[in-house]
Each structure stands twice: as structure tokens, then as C-alpha cells.
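Homework-ish question, so no full write-ups if that breaks the rules, but can someone show me the predicted structure for this set?
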Amino acid sequence: MIRVSVLGATGYTGAELLRLLSAHSEVKVVSAASQSFVGKELGEIFSNFRQAEKMKLVNPEELAGQTVDLVFVCLPSGKSMKVVPELLSAGMRVIDLSPDFRYRSASLYEDWYGIKHAATKENEDAVFGLPEFYAKEIQNAGLVGNPGCYTTAAILALTPLLKAGLISEKGIIVDGASGITGAGRKADLDHSFAEVWGNFKAYNPVRHRHTSEMEEEISYLSGKQVTLQFTPHLLPLNRGILETIYADLAPDATEKAIADCLHDAYDDAVFTHLLAGVLPDLKGVVGSNNCLIGFEMAERTGKLVLFSALDNLLKGASGQAVQNMNIMYGLPQDMGLPLIASYL
Amino acid sequence: MIRVSVLGATGYTGAELLRLLSAHSEVKVVSAASQSFVGKELGEIFSNFRQAEKMKLVNPEELAGQTVDLVFVCLPSGKSMKVVPELLSAGMRVIDLSPDFRYRSASLYEDWYGIKHAATKENEDAVFGLPEFYAKEIQNAGLVGNPGCYTTAAILALTPLLKAGLISEKGIIVDGASGITGAGRKADLDHSFAEVWGNFKAYNPVRHRHTSEMEEEISYLSGKQVTLQFTPHLLPLNRGILETIYADLAPDATEKAIADCLHDAYDDAVFTHLLAGVLPDLKGVVGSNNCLIGFEMAERTGKLVLFSALDNLLKGASGQAVQNMNIMYGLPQDMGLPLIASYL
Amino acid sequence: MIRVSVLGATGYTGAELLRLLSAHSEVKVVSAASQSFVGKELGEIFSNFRQAEKMKLVNPEELAGQTVDLVFVCLPSGKSMKVVPELLSAGMRVIDLSPDFRYRSASLYEDWYGIKHAATKENEDAVFGLPEFYAKEIQNAGLVGNPGCYTTAAILALTPLLKAGLISEKGIIVDGASGITGAGRKADLDHSFAEVWGNFKAYNPVRHRHTSEMEEEISYLSGKQVTLQFTPHLLPLNRGILETIYADLAPDATEKAIADCLHDAYDDAVFTHLLAGVLPDLKGVVGSNNCLIGFEMAERTGKLVLFSALDNLLKGASGQAVQNMNIMYGLPQDMGLPLIASYL
Amino acid sequence: MIRVSVLGATGYTGAELLRLLSAHSEVKVVSAASQSFVGKELGEIFSNFRQAEKMKLVNPEELAGQTVDLVFVCLPSGKSMKVVPELLSAGMRVIDLSPDFRYRSASLYEDWYGIKHAATKENEDAVFGLPEFYAKEIQNAGLVGNPGCYTTAAILALTPLLKAGLISEKGIIVDGASGITGAGRKADLDHSFAEVWGNFKAYNPVRHRHTSEMEEEISYLSGKQVTLQFTPHLLPLNRGILETIYADLAPDATEKAIADCLHDAYDDAVFTHLLAGVLPDLKGVVGSNNCLIGFEMAERTGKLVLFSALDNLLKGASGQAVQNMNIMYGLPQDMGLPLIASYL
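A: Not a homework solution, just the prediction itself:
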């Protein structure tokens, strides 16, 4: 049994992790920590845990004294990098769900997050936790930087096509829409039911931080220098991201070449797949750890229109973290992870 | 033109009032006051007012110096009774949307709200603002206590039948469900989108304050001593109340007698009506100032099942307040008020 | 491995069953049948199955020639009783999700469904599939009649209290609200998104068929003759049932006695539990196979207000069917069934 | 009083028109016609009309014999062009809400709709009913082709900037999302509540018919040859369109120049406006006849990101039709039309 702790257990990604881990046959959750709710039962915070095995939330500092193999860190940006080095020193492996260890360039992180990186050495050894491209490195990683939700969807759709030269690296547009759990758990008037229900709007339309994460990683993986326009929108629902991505087709790109390229890239993947004949929608992914991709050729305009869908709390966060854990411990990638969306 | 002020303009009932009044041909809104947002434009708080005529929110204290005929007070319970006496002394008429002036018995109010009534003299002269029963008194009122949303729906459905002896005053159950705007505008985790969407639950199931308001007023109007069980529920939508009401049929009550009784009561009303052949639903009332009533005879159990539906921000609050204003100034009851629900 | 077939695979309960069974480690789904979609892949009908193992839908008649241990029958009322006898004769065990084998009295079924029962002999041997009361009988059953969704919630909340004499069997009111999947999968204007979104309404308020199922089974289990008033409502969401149940307290019933009674009844149950201190809501059950119960004493009115919540597609249908299968084959009741609601 | 008929009264645009017209002080609705529901009351089809003035739906053929000034035609594409010529011959003016009279080039219409145009002569005299650009022509028009919902939002946002040369006419992308009422009223499994709720997806991503309407009209108005990529998406809500539009900035385009251009274009408009400092959202427009526009400069990518929001049933259909009627009869443009969105 892998002995696991969750740090930051009372946000949505923390709670989703605990839900997944509680049904994982190779995991023993040793502790769940939360600065704000020390001493409370998880079931007092999330009604779905009311009937689960009781577990009192502990102070994050108590982790140090525990025998733990792996810590999932679900803290906000800036806070994670302050605790991760200590956990690594204590011999624990870490999967970090914050943005703190996702960047190759610490200075790029600093530009977009406006804070000094406090653990650059650890960052150098961190592995980008996207199994479709880094399964081997994840296997032996001490520290995994779990990718952002929007980022995961964009990298998976764009990278193979850029690498194959089937689309231009210039002028790419990522138009994304996410359910509200992506914004975290907080008492915020802007996120109150009455304000969000029946509404739809863009936010951070020209400088959302995931832009930099997409650009750095897609450029690295594809070998092309990508600068892209990313515009996120807020959907009146809880879970799911759909990205509609526009790119200029290379002169010789055919529908078959694009399909072949994406099939080659993902037919052996556990959770990421090209759909044929239909477009991905949220229902087809929410509740599962899948990322589903589709596309249409727009001959009139010379554009490729790509669609990439995932559940932001699963493949976009906690599900991908469990997938990374499975790889780190030599388990099947889909252990404890749903392959079929709940649909209704 | 009636010169009007709105006190407490940045809650949902205040904003709804300003929306209605801005399209009312006989009203000039002189000022809108809000303690929390002095100096701001309403359009900075509510996006629907961004293109409306500009009006900076003033400090409530500035009202005193203004020439105003009528003030709508949209303050929380306990705050209203502190400012209303002064407004009356300054010669203004007042429609109060808080619970502070809805009770005949100040001590009943004190029991249920847990605060001492600070304006008992004014309370004695206040008129209960339910036009279907008190149009005449409202006409000349200096102070109108605008009824609660749940209360309005229950009184309108039950009163005529109790008065006529067609149902028993014992054992009445009011099972209500409301959209979330009834809970007001606030940054509250329990009312955040992620927590409410896809959810349904009861709240305050045995001591919701509207219980006392229903009991006092229904007893007064019907001449029967009514003690009832009221259980409110929270719906994942913004507007609308549906009450399903259970009462024991009197031994000789027939379907025809019940229909006749409700037709007699409301066929001449502007906004309240008995539906025939179908049951009221939220779509049939939301966006209008109507209260629609329906019923079914449950012969197997000897129960009458009554349904009463209204828009909690219109007939349940701001719409009814405008209806009261129209009566106070000799205007048609429906001036500036929608008779047809928006449906979609 | 249990060899299983699903008959009527393209309704919502059928698809939910297939989703659950695909992750069940002791089950091999041999075939899925559907009259309307023979030859199609399930993924062509439900987008969540697009990436699942391919399985072409077969004609129901092909079942006869297959080696199958257990058939889940998800057909409409009236159709099920025509095929079940044949399946039993072929030596298969059957869990029937229709109402056809839920009734002790075939004539009661005939009264409420308006059709002649075509398999009264098989009906006599059928076991009512509610594990909290009939686990032993289910174990050896050839035919299990899986209870209705509303029925399950009502029986679980009321039975122990009636049996213990803590509430009166007279005048019970069950006020229920369900997500729309309870109405099945169909192209119906009344169930189109535009008509249901933002709406809430009662339907069949005095003669919903589940009334009779509740009455028969609760009377049988409690030994009291129960006639109750059941009013269902339609919620603008997909999954979940909440019932708010009103009953007259016995003269000597105390809060402690009621809690003790429900604890005694369910503390050893796998999925059904009494909540303490909080009321059940849909979020706390949707996505799990739980039924959660809560209550409040209404001293002013002498009423007990009970709350019972479950996911209509899980504990209310397909989840309970899998729970029954687990019992029939000596497996842990919760194998393949989620204990923690998905919450978001 | 203008004597008005509505042809095709039982779709969503027809019902919305009747709702607006019933509160319009200068209009008398003479008749409402519907092939499918002859003899029924409107209130039998739409619950919001249950309490409105009774009006039996007539057969469309009865219109011929009536004294009517203006007919609103709410028929599907292809059907409208078969009845409009006759109405015009009978001396009635017509506002047509179908696509049949929106195109300058009948052959472009034929290409995209796949049907022969049956009224090319009438089409030549038809005026494109977008008051912001054609108020003068509308005033005297016999036949107005009311623009499409997506089209209206795109033309209003793009035209002034293209005309001023502030953005390039090459490579424009219109990414749109609409509430489901845009798809009309029908019993369709794909549009059932269970399938749409919690979902988000693109549809017709490369050949939606509104593409051609946008291109023709924007090219005509701006004098630039525009070919654009339009991808519509379906939102899980009833009303509202938000378009996020991407265009390449001209080399010398400044934020000020863009703002000035849009202010010049729309500061005198009744319903269309540039927002400053905030982005348009659905809440800010739904329930009103406004079209609100916003933008952001994306300097990193050289793109202009434009946002355009409106209510698809109001400014996108029936509201714009009433605005056109007001212009045709010399009334204030906003008579009977809401200027403030309902917000909640």
C-alpha cells in the first residue's frame, strides 16, 4: 500500500483527490491537512464525505512526523514552493497540483505570477506531469508538477500537429470555456449562484496565466516557437473544459494526415483519444479521466478547428495526479480512475 | 410625477425596484441610497444598469434633505425600523420591504426575530401591503409593510378557503421551494454556484420566520386560529416560488365549491388568479407580477393539494411594492408591471 | 465472472447499468440488447461510451441463444412481464427494473397501471429488491423486482418509525422532487431543455403510481395499514430525489427515540444512514449509491419532518440493481458501487 | 393603433413577439396564426399566456381576409418566401424573421440553404432590418428582412472597425455561444433537458448558415471582402449570445482609436453601446433589447479580441423586429422594448 497524504484537502481539487483515493485499492490515506479547518471532519465541509470513513483534518505541520510515501500538494501558487522542499528532504515524493513546479523557466513563472520563485533548485528536477509525453520521467520522479487544466487540453490537441508540421505555429487561438470549479472554493460574490446561473462571459482575456504554461510546454515539445492567444470563459456548470482551437493549416495538410497524426499520437494512450465523426462535448468526458479530441477542416478559411474536452477536476487536476501516482508506483495508469463519463 | 427614493438599492430587491421604476411613466427616481457603495454608479454593481441613465449612489443620510414623496426601504430586518420613523416625520410616505412593519403584534415579531421592536407606534399604523385584501387601506397609508415572498403565496392560496370553511384550519402543511435570490445578495460559500448548482435541500425546516407571518395574517383574515407547518427548500435557479400546500378537506367540500370560492376571491384581481385544468409552474409566473393558484382533490386521503406560484422578486417583493405604490397614488395597479411571464 | 446481459440498454437506467458493470471486477457483460438500436454501438447513442470497449447492440431475441447467468431487464411497464418468464425458463436469473414484479398483489398493479398482469405466477416468486429489508431473500432469488426510485426513499425513511409506533400511520404526506432522468429518455417537448430549465412544478399530484408501491410495501413491512398522499415535483437538474415527509408524531415520541430507531435500523447497512446535525441534500448523495435520511421535530405542530435523499439512477434504480446482484452472487454489497457522492 | 398579425405564433420568436406586443401601447394584435395549433388558445401552449387576454390561434389563410397593417412572419426558411409575396400584394407591410429576405444575393442564399429562392423580386426590395445601419431605409420599407441573431452581434462589433481600417479583413474568427432557444421549439432528443444540462459543445463548426449572412452584410457595409471562420456553441441556458471575435490589428491601431471608432458608431444608438472598463456578459443583456460590445488589445499576439453580447430572442430576433416596426411607424425606437436587462 502506498501511504499518502493530501495537503490542502478542503479545496475542490483536494476533496476530489480524497474521493478518488478512498476507492483506490493500493492506497492508504494517512492524513489530510488543512490550515483553515484543523480538527474538523471532512464530512463537515463536504456533504458527500458525511458517510465516509472518519478522518479529522490535521495541521500541515504534523505531516513532518508521519511515515508517508507520497504527498499531494493542493496549495495556491506561491505557497506550494515554500513547503515542497521540506517534504522532499524528508524523503517523501511529491505531486504538486499548484503552478509552482510546472515551468522549465523559473523566470517565466515569475513574470506571469508576479512572485519570486523560492525553490528553483527543486524546480529544476521537477517533471511535468503529463503522462502522454513524460511517462518515463514520471516513473522515477521525486517531484511532479501536475499541469494546469486548460494547459492539459491545449497541449494534447496541438503538440502532435505542430511537431508534424501540419499546422502553423503562428496565429494560434485557444478559445476555452470552463465550469466554475476551476476557480476554486471561495465565498465570492462574483461566483455566487445568482450571479453565475444563466450567465456566460470571458475573463482575463489577454493575460490568463495558463497562456504562458501552454506556450512554454508546447514550444518545448514541438520544437516550434509558439505564441498564442488564449481566452477563457466561465460556463454556468460545475465541471468540464472545452477548448475550441484555431490554427492555420499547413499548405499540404489533409484531413487524413491530421487524423493519422493524432491517431499515432494517442491510440495507445489510456485516456486521450481522437474522436471520429463526432465532436467532443463535456458530457462525453465529465466524470471520467479522459481527454477527447476532435477536429474539422475549414477549407473556406484555411483553418483547422480543433476541439479538446476534459473534466477540469479529473484529467485537468486530481485525476491526472492519480494517474501520475499510478505511473510512479508501477500500477496500471487507470487504477482507481473512471474511463466512462457519468453522462447524466 | 411621483418623486421616489430607494433606500438599500444594492440588494436584489432594491435593484429590481429600480429596474421597474425606470420604466414607470409616472415615477421620477430622485435618489438611490446604499451604505456600502456610496459614490458608485449602479452600473458598477449590476451589469444590466451599465447602459441605463447614470445615477450615483448616495449616503442614506442625504435622503433627509431631499424633496421626496415616497421612499422604498429595502433594508434588513431590524435596520428598517430605525430609519422609517424619521422618514415619516419628514412627511414622506414609506413602503417597507423588510419584515419590520408586517406584523400586527410587535411581540410576535420580537419572538421570531429575536430583536426588540423599536418603532411600535409606527407599526400600529402600518398597513399590510397585500392589495388583494387591503387595497382600500393601502390607498391612504403613510406606511405600508410589504409582505414576505413565501407569505404572499400562502395567504393568497389559503385565506378564501379557510374563510369559507372548505378546509380545516388544523394540520395545514406549506411545503415551499424558492429560487436563490430570496436569500439576498451576499458572498457566502453556501450560496456559491458550485454548491447550489445541481443541488436541492430544505433549510430552516421547522422555524422559518415566514411561518409566523403566515399564521398571524391568515388567522386574522380568515377568523380561524391557524398553526401551520412550513418547510422551505432551495431550488437551483434564480427566481420563483412554488408552494405545495396540504389541507384537510371539510366533509362537504366539493371540487366545484373550491373552484367557485377561489374564482369569487380573485376573478377581479389584477394579478392573482385560479388556473383551471393545469397546475401553476414557475415558468408561468417568473418575470410577471402574477400569483397563480391551482388545486387537486385527493379523494383517497381527504386532502386538498393547493399550488401557489409567484416570482419572489416581483409579486413576492419589488413588484408588489410597485403595485402598492400604484394604489397609493391612484394609478392602475398594473402600471409598469408585467402581466405576462417572460417564459424563457 | 458473472455473465450478464442488459435488456433495454439504451434508456438511462440501462446505460447507467452498463457504466457500473464495465468497472465491476466480477462481471462480464455478454450482451446489451435494444429493440430500437440493433447493430449500433453504444457510443453512437451515449457520448460517454465513445471510448469504451466496443459492443454492438443486439436484438433482444438473440439473448435466448446466449450463455448468460443474469439478465437485467430495463423495459417499460407491461413489456417486462412478457419477456421475463422466458428468461427464467431458460435458467437465467433476472433483476427486473420495471414495475412489473414489484407488487405483492397483481391486482393492485393492475389497478394502478391499467394493464392485465401477464406473469402472475412468476410475480408470486419475485423478491422485492430492497437489500435493507430483504437481503436474505434476494440471495437465493431467481427473480428480483427492483423497487421504484421514489418508493425506495420513502420506504427507507418511514418503515422503522412506523414499525416502532413512533409516528402515526394516518395522514402521512410524501412531498418528493426528482431530477429529470427519472422520466426516462425521450424526445418530448415537455422535457426539452428550454421548457424545464428554470422551472419547477408538480406532476401527477394525486395519482402517481409509486403511491401504490409505497403503500403496499410500507404496510407489509410495518404491519400498519398506510394510505398516504404523495406529490412528486420535477427539478431542473438531472439526478437526485429528495423527499420531505410529514407524519404525526406519536404522543410519546422523543427526538432520541426517533434517532435510536433509525440508527438501529441502518447503522449496519452499507448505503443507508441517518445523518446527525445536518439535513440530507442532493449533493450528498448524487453519484453514490447512498440513501441518506434526516429529520426534524416540529413541536409547534406535532409533526415529524423526515428527509430522504438518493440518486434516482443509482440507489433509485441501477445502483440498487447492482447491489442486488452482488447479494445474489455472494459478493460484498458495495462492489463496483460508489460510496462517496461526486459532489461537484 | 397599428393593426398587427403574427404568422407562426407558436415558436419561441412568435411567442416572444406576442409578449412584447401585448404591452406595446400603439399596437393592436388582430390575429395570431399557426398551422399546427388552429383553434387553440395561446395559453394552452405557453403557460405565461394563461392569464393574458384570450386569443384563439387562426389558420394562416384567414389572414388574407383581415384588415391588417403589418404582419410579422415567424416561419422557417423556405416557407416564408412562399407567403410573403401575397401579403405584400394585399397591401400589408411585412417584417420577416426568417432568413428568406436577409440576403442581397439570392444565389448566395440558395447556396447555403440548398433551396431555390421563390420570391427574388420581393427580395430585391427587401431592407436588411438592422436599425443601426439602415434606419432610413426601414422607415419606408414594405418588406424588412430581420437579421439573424449571431449575425446581428457580429455585424455590430466588426463593421465600424473594418470600415475604419483598424483591423484586417483577413483571418477574422467569430467564436459564438448561444442559449438553446436559438434552436427553436421542438421535441428533439438532442435538445432534451437531460442531454443539454451540464453540457457545452460546438455545432456546425465550419458551415453554419449565419456565416454567409455575416460575410455578405459585413462586406457590403465595410467595403472590404470578408471571409470569416464562425463556430457556434450551445450553452446550457435559455437566452443570450456572446461572441468572442478575433481579428488582426492594423499596424497603427491604438486602443484609443478603436474605442473612438466604436463610440462614434454607437453613442447615439438606442440599444447598441461600447462598454468601457468591463466586458459584456449575458446577464448584462438578457431581457433587454441591447447589444453590448467590449474589447481587449492583445499586444503579445497583435490581435484584437472583441466581445458582443445580446439576447437572441430580443435584439437577435423579436425585439429587433419590434424596433423595426417602431421605425416604420415613426415611433420612438424603444417603445415597448426593455432597456435594462432583467439580470436575475
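Now go work out the reasoning yourself. Hint: Chain D has a mean pLDDT of 96.
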